[in-house]
Amino acid sequence: MCRVCFLQDAKINKNRQEQEINLLMHRVIRIFVAVCVLSIACIGDLWAQYDKDVFYFRGRRALADGKYAQAIENFNVLTQLDTADYWTFFFRGIAKYNLGDIRGARQDFDRSVHINPIFTSGYHYRGITESRYGNYDQALADLQKAIDLRPGEIGLYFSRGVTYFLSQQFDNAVSDFDKYIRKEPKDPSAYLNRGASYLFLGDTLKAVSDYNKAIRLDRFDPEGYVRRGRVYASQNKYDLAIADMDKAIELDTTNTFAYFNRAIMYYEQERYNEAMKDLNRVLRDEPGNALTLYNRGLINAQLGAYEDALDDMDRVLNINPENVLAYFNRASIFIEMGLYRNALEDYDKTIELYPDFAKAYMNRAYVKSLLGDMKASKSDYETAQKKVREYREKNISDAGSFADTTKKYSSLLSLDAEFAKKDFNDELLQHRDIDIRLRPLYRFAVTGQKDDTNYALERGYENSLINRFEAGFPVGVEVTNETVHPDVEVLEAVEDAAYGQTVQSAQTIFLRALNEYNEKQFNSSLNYYGKAIDMSREQGDISRMYEAFYRMNRGALRAEMIEFIASIESNVQVLSMDDAGTTRARVKDQITRSYDYTDAIEDMKAAAAIVDDMPYVYYNLGNLYCLSSEHINSIDNYTKAIELYPYMGDAYFNRGLVLIYLKDKEKGCIDLSRAGELGVQDAYGVIKKYCEDENN
Fold it and tell me: Domain check: are 223 and 364 in the same one?
C-alpha cells in the first residue's frame, strides 16, 4: 500500500574479526541442526499423539533443509499442542536465529531452560544469543552453566572461546580453544579462532602458525588465506599477502572481503589501477559499501578524477551523514577544484562534528586565507596550535586522535583501522536506502469460492457477523489484504449476480462495487459503495450493521486511489528513517507531496463506530494514520487490532516498522519477531537490517 523508505542510522558495529567469529558460530549452529534434528536420540521421549509426531517431523525436516520459516510454522502448532515441551521452543529458536531474529531466538531458548532448568543445549544457545548482543557476562554465565551440566561436551568450549574473544579476554579464549583442539584436532575453524586470539595478543608467529594449520586441514577454505594474508600485509610482506588474497579469490570469486584487502595491498604498492579494479569489484556486489566508496574516492582524488571522487564522497555521506573523514577529504577535493566556499562548508561541518580536529582548523585557515578573510584564518591557525599543544600535554589517544597533526587523514582505511571503526558503522557497510512496504489494507474481495480446509489449530479470526455477511453472497467473498485475481468464470458469476437481480439490495449493490473494482473502474466502484451505504441504513437490523463493511471497503478504495495518483506523479509517500537526510545541496532531495487521507480515515472510523470489535478496521486506521504522519494514532490503532486479534501478524509487522521509525527499536524489533513467528515472511528481511545488533 505504501512504501516506507528507511535510511539506516550509522553507528559503530563489531569489527571484521568479530564478524568472522560470529560466522563460525553460525556454522556450529548449522552443524548442530544437521545432526540433532535428524536424530531420535536428540528428541527425548517419543510422543504418542500422531498430530504431534507429524508436525514435529515436518518442523525438524524443514529445519534440516534450511526452510526456517516453514519450520517455525510447524513448531508454532506444537507450542499449542504441548506448552511444556522444551525441545519445541529450542528448535524454533534455532530457526529464528538462522533467519536473523536473534531476539525471538533468545526468547525461545529462555523458554526452553525455564521449562527444563537442566537443559544444556538451551543454556548453550541462549549464551550464543547473549553474546551476539554484547551481553558477555550473561553469555559466559550461560555457557558455564552448560559446562557444569555437561563438562564433556567439547563444543561448549568452542562457543565459550568465541565469547571470550568477543569480550577481549584473549588469554581465556586461547585456553578454551586449546581444550577444544585437544579433542578436535582436525577442525580448521578452531585454529582460525585461536590464531585470531594470538593476533590480538600480539603474537603474530603463533597466529600465522595456526592459520597455516587451518590451511593444511582445509586447502579449499578461503578464510585461512585471507587471514594469513592480512598478517603478511601488516608485516609489509605485500607479495606474500597478495598471493594469499589471489588464492582466496581463486577459491571464492565472490569473496568481497578478499578483493577489498587486496585493493589496500595494491594501493600500498602504488598499483592504483589494480586497486581501483578490486574496489569496483566489491562495489559491484555491494553498492552501499561505504568504506569501499570512501577508499575509491581517495584514489580517484589522487588520480585527478575529482568529479568521480566527489560522487564517491557524496555517497558515503548519504549513507553516514556524520562521517568526519568524508567531510574532511571532500573539502580537500573542493580545494583542488577551486570550489573554496564548498570546501569551507565541509570544514565547518567537520569541526562541528569533531571540535578537536586540529588538521581541519589548519586547512580551514588556509581556505579562509584564499577567500581573503585573514583575521578568521589567523584565529583558526591559533586554535589548531592550541589543540596540538593540548594533545601533546595530555597524551590523549582515542579522544584526541584528531588533534594529532602527524597522522595522515587522506590515506586509505583498512577494515580494522582506528578511524574505520570510529567513523564507519562497520567495515562491510551495506546500509543504504531500503524500500519496505507496509502490509496492505484489508478489504472484502471476490475470491470465487471459499476455502473450507481446516488446518489443525489454525488461529484465524472468527466473527459471526462477518461470517453471516460472506455467506449471503452467491460467490465467494472474504476479507483479505492479498491481491486477488479471480478467473473469468468467477467474474462472470459476479456480474450475473450483481446485475441479473430484479430486486436490488445493499449486498447486490456492494457486489457491483466489487465487480467495478475488478474492472479497474474505481469511480464507479466508489459510487456503488456509497449507494450500498445508503441502502443499508434504510434496511435496518443486521443489514444496518453491514454498513461497517461497505465503509471499510470504500475507505480502502479511497486510499488506493490516492496511492495510484501518487504513483502517477512519481511521488509515493515515504517515511525517512533518518531526519538528517542528504548532506548538502548538490545531492538532490526527494520531492514529496502530502496527500489527504481524511475521507478514508472517516470511513474507517465510521465503520469502527458501527462494529467496534473488527480488527481489520483498526489495522486499516493504523495504516492510514501512518500515511498521514500521525504515528502515535497509528500505533494506537495497530495495538487495538492486536488486542482484538492477537494473531494478526500484519499488525505486528506494521507497528514494528512505525516503532523503529520513531527510534523505539527494541519494541519495534520485538513486534517484527512476533510477525515473523505468525507467518509474515517479510519480517525477517527487516529484522536482518535493523535488529541483528541490539547496540545499533
Answer: no
